[in-house]
Amino acid sequence: MQGHGKGGWRSIVAAPDEKPRVTLSLLKRVLKYATPYRKLMLATLFIILIHTGVTILTPLIMRDLIDRTIPNKDIHRLILLALALLFIPAANGGLNVLQRQLTARIGEGVIYDLRVALYAALQRMSLRFFTNTRVGELMSRLNNDVIGAQNAISNTIVGIITDIIQAVVVLSVMLGLEWRLTLISVAILPLFIIATHQMGNRLRDIARRQMEVNAQMNALMGETLNIGGALLVKLFGRSIFEVDRFRQRAESVRDMGVRRAFMGSIFITLIGLLTAVGTSLVYGLGGYFVILGQFTVGTIVALGAYLGSLYSSLQSLANAPVEFSTSMVSFERVFEVIDLPVDIEEKPEAIDLQDVRGEITFENVTFVYEIGDEYLLSDVRRYGSVDNVTTVLSGPVETDQTEASASHSQARGNALENISFCVEPGQLVALVGPSGAGKTTMTYLIPRLYDPISGTIRLDGIDLKDIRLESLSRQIGMVTQETYLFHDTIRTNLQYARLSATQQEMEEACRVANIHHFINELPDGYSTVVGERGYRLSGGEKQRLALARVILKDPRILVLDEATSNLDSESEQLIQEALKRVMAMRTSIVIAHRLSTILAADQILVVDRGQIVEHGNHEQLLHQRGLYAHLYKTQFRREMTGE
Ligand code: ADP
User: Fold this and answer.
1) For residue 443, is pLDDT > 90?
2) Which residue among 11, 34, 111, 138 is least packed, with the fewest CB closer than 10 Å?
3) What is the pTM of this model?
């Protein structure tokens, strides 16, 4: 969804820079996530220090062996040194295990904190956010980015610290051993750093591209492999087309993988060559000095060994800024979600509703779906629809204006405009109107799934915005056309409405909803698993289960979208009976598709193009000979004569 043209919306945020910028504030924020692990981090640092100290000993022992112990035929010293050569790696191994354990605890801890914060942030998001965000995108933030962030802390930061310590210590020892040769071997460093940096940049770009193409491939899988998508593909016979589309994306993934491997190997080769220059210098020049009798053989051997470890730390350090900033991208992406403004806000002084009468008033309510992009993730804009199905399939878009009930298009700027009405406690209000008129939208505003852009909605005279969200949701029971059930038992699905509900209460609710007998006849009764991969309920059964769930919740206000699909007359009757019982004593707002509901309604609101165009009871409205009379003739009466 793009920014709305009408003034006032904040401009679309520019796509994030290709090169990640590590700002001080970002860094501070990341460090805040690391603070709870201060002690563990200090312990890690301590271990790194010991580890470096122990590692540094081996070349010195070699030197002693070559220069002193062996020439002096000192057996006692030889045994000691040989034992040291055994114990040093053993100690190192132990320290390594300990260090890994600590860094894992820090890293996993950060993952945990970030994940929970992210999930909690997502739970605060409005419906608008979810209708505009692909699930795959969110999963990717919860998984990949959080792991990337963990990597930043447990590998990158720890790695940088280790390398700095190692480089400093090794360099000092080398300078102490033989400063001239050390300076010569360090002379190639600038070359080294430039090469590493350049290659690192390139590798990072490839890695980033690889992440993008991977995300696109995953998005395609997500869209076509869920039940809805798979069904669509089959019904339109698009399997081959989808395989093609997948092939294209998988090709990009493959090509990027190959490029990354290629660049990686070139990088390693280059570094190897540069290291060889250093090594050859040390041994060549060093050997010359040995021949001249200025150094001992042991010194050169030790220097050669140190050189390897020096180069490897410096190589990592040269790469560190790039790696670090790349890891920071993950943090940025996670923070982006956490920072999204909450669209439906709860005032700090919001009140808890106690005894609700159930009076609902709409006062000049106007609403649009499109609002500023600041409520959406950047990727929603970034990926746009570049190679979506539409661009492949796009043809002239024809709008179907031949709908029987509406002779004119429902397309308009505001989804709702200037809606005012009042529902007395206990009344039944029927919303009637052509498809797209805004009926569902009106019902969405009552539990504050969206907020109007102007006007006020009140419950018992209190502005909805002054009511605590949880308390508002407790008062409202909503049965939508599409009933969502978790992949779990019927019992658990029912208990979602009231966690403390007893079996007896559930059975009572199900009796009222006319679904108890059906459930009882299922092989596992209330323990039957339903939902996505469970037992498939029919439309009517699902609706009755949804009704039972709402009955269990026992709200003062019932918002209901009557099923449009044609149910068989038995289901139909069961639902009608159930509804009658549920609506009694409650304020009910029903998007009515059935004549019986309309006839029973205290008020009928006729909605067209986002406005209430007629208002009254059945008799009054028929006399007006307006849209209602037209709808009645074309839709509802048919239902009556059909009976
Ligand atoms: P009805 O329930 O009367 O059929 P709706 O309330 O569902 O109509 O839709 C009213 C208008 O709002 C329609 O023009 C529809 O296209 C638009 N609309 C519905 N949902 C969204 C959404 N999530 N984003 C943007 N526009 C929407």
Assistant:
1) yes
2) 11
3) 0.76
